[in-house]
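Researcher: We're teaching a course module on how sequence relates to structure. For the next exercise, students receive a sequence and then see the predicted structure as tokens, so they can try to spot secondary structure elements on their own. Here is the exercise chain.
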Amino acid sequence: MKEKLVMDFYHILKSAHSGWRYLVLIMLVLAIVQALAGWLGKKPYTEANRKINVFTLIFVHTQILFGLGLYFLSPLVQAGIRYWKMEHIGMMIFAAILVTVGNARSKRIDDAASKHRTIALYFGLGLIVIVASIIQMTQVDSTRTFWGAS
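Model: And here is the predicted structure for the students to work with:
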């Protein structure tokens, strides 16, 4: 009974993690485009900019929480499959760190262009790491696609 409950929770987490990735990708792209427009267009850093960045940070951290839950429940990790045990979790935590550091550094900057540039660079690097990890996932497991639900 306990094992069935754990597997049911695993499947719920897996669905949440799989679906939430779209929101994370959308928020990251939105924040990066907004930051690039602000940086290159020499626009002021507004409260709306700050809110988009904070919500992006929250979405990324929520995704990491789903992922950590999966990490401890996943039969793929327990089977010792290297990609799931080491690479995916490592790359995603690194991406979350980039987003977190970018958001934190932008708070300490007074100049609007520098705030936008910091967000664009750190969030952009985080997005690159996430996309690289997803692409790597599709190469490790041929049953998965970049946009398909897993």
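Model: If you want an answer key for the exercise: The mean pLDDT is 92. The first helix runs from residue 2 to 40.
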